[in-house]
Amino acid sequence: MATQSGCYESVTDFYANTDVFLTGGTGFLGKVLIEKLLRSCPDIGRLFVLMRNKRGKSIETRVTELFDCPLFDRLKEENQSAIGKIVPIYGDIAQPRLGMCEEDIQRLSNVSVAFHLAASVRFDDPLRDAIKANICSTQELFEILKSTATKLRAVVHVSTAYSNPENRYVEEKLYPPKFDWKKITQAADRYDTETLDAIAKKLSSNSPNTYTFTKGLAEQVCNDYSSELPLAIVRPSVVLFSIDEPICGWVDNFNGPTGMLISAGIGITRTGYLPPRNRINIIPVDVVVKMVILAAWKRGTIERAVGPKHLPIYNSAVSYQQSLEYQEMLVRAKDYLFHVPFSRMIWVPRGFPTDSKALYCIMLLFTMLLPCYLLDLLIRLVGYKPFLMKLQSRIYSSEVALRYFTWHEWTFETKQANNLPCLLDEKDRTIFGWEMPDSLTGKYLENAYIPIRRYLMKDPDETIPQAKRKLARRGL
């Protein structure tokens, strides 16, 4: 595939000797993006990663801990020196100028590619916090890049496929704004948290939560800056386990379906209030990362000479047929869990989701709340701190926050996203292309259970035989 200059520039050449700036590098998607860039683009320049001190740990300590993660084992085997290309930059996305000092901002003068992944993904954030993290941070980044990064070739903003959730068929286009993003950022500076929360529903046109509302407005920020910056938007659906690399089935958080599968696996969750036949649109994290990398490559090569206001949008999602049906996902999950059960299982995994509110309430009371309450009493009697009811409360709050998404279904147009690998030559397609199975319910889901057990539950593989015997005894 030739660029407009008539010469194909490979993906690895595009990133060679190129300084990259990344926000959100310590998140699930960000870690996988860092690993892929360093491993598959070995000649990449410096990789500036915005970080803040956390739990008393400096950004330098956090970088060291980042590379202690098993996710980077393959990189360390193939190219240990690549780790030295990471340059942590102190900052905070909720602050003006991203909380960066002027000296660090000037260090970005040679940046050619920027990825904006950082966001608050909590659905229940106060509106003011969500505005600061998701809208203001986007504008602040663009202002910094516009004034500092004179060699900029591409900026990729990672949004969400649910930024306009009222549309059940989501096209790869920008949708009309629900509000003026400039006015709402001014409101965040003018009013306190309580005042904004009191009028949140009116401001957000009854959006289901502050996350989708502010992510939708962040896309409008991209639109307004598209005449000044070479921008592209990638909208992932529900980002989950890797399908291929660098570790098959890799996941490092308990968010969304992962938390649901784990709580079901230890026997805590026995039911859920949702239509069992509804589907969830899951996209593997390594596929999203490749789309993000290619979106920047295409914007900086093939689309380099396009006119102003060009804003390509890529829906990173699977087809309806490839998506996961909740009931089938949970049934298969129970089968897998009987093959590789968790050692810290409290009860045998059982139960089922239902769309009957009455049945859900009965099951919630008698199979989840009452057993946990009684076991907490026993735990307290023997002198330990009870924890099960607190855990159930967190699980219930998470389930309520997700109800809007479990009770609705979406279909996503993915023509532009799926066309990205077709633009590559054979060598690049081998490294940055992807193939998706007809259904993600089979091997994709099955391959995630050992990594979940090993890395999230901290359950060594050697304990599987013992866990199976424990499950057999409790299942009698």
From TrEMBL:
The chain crosses the membrane at residues 362-383. Residues 22-291 form the Thioester reductase (TE) domain. The keyword NADP applies. InterPro entries: FAR (IPR026055), FAR_C (IPR033640), FAR_NAD-bd (IPR013120), NAD(P)-bd_dom_sf (IPR036291). It catalyses: a long-chain fatty acyl-CoA + 2 NADPH + 2 H(+) = a long-chain primary fatty alcohol + 2 NADP(+) + CoA. Keywords: Lipid biosynthesis, Lipid metabolism, Membrane, NADP, Oxidoreductase, Transmembrane, Transmembrane helix. Its EC number is 1.2.1.84. GO terms for biological process: long-chain fatty-acyl-CoA metabolic process. It comes from the Eukaryota. GO terms for cellular component: peroxisome. One of its GO terms (molecular function) is alcohol-forming long-chain fatty acyl-CoA reductase activity. Residues 368-459 form the Fatty acyl-CoA reductase C-terminal domain. Catalyzes the reduction of fatty acyl-CoA to fatty alcohols. Belongs to the fatty acyl-CoA reductase family. This is Fatty acyl-CoA reductase. It comes from Anopheles farauti.
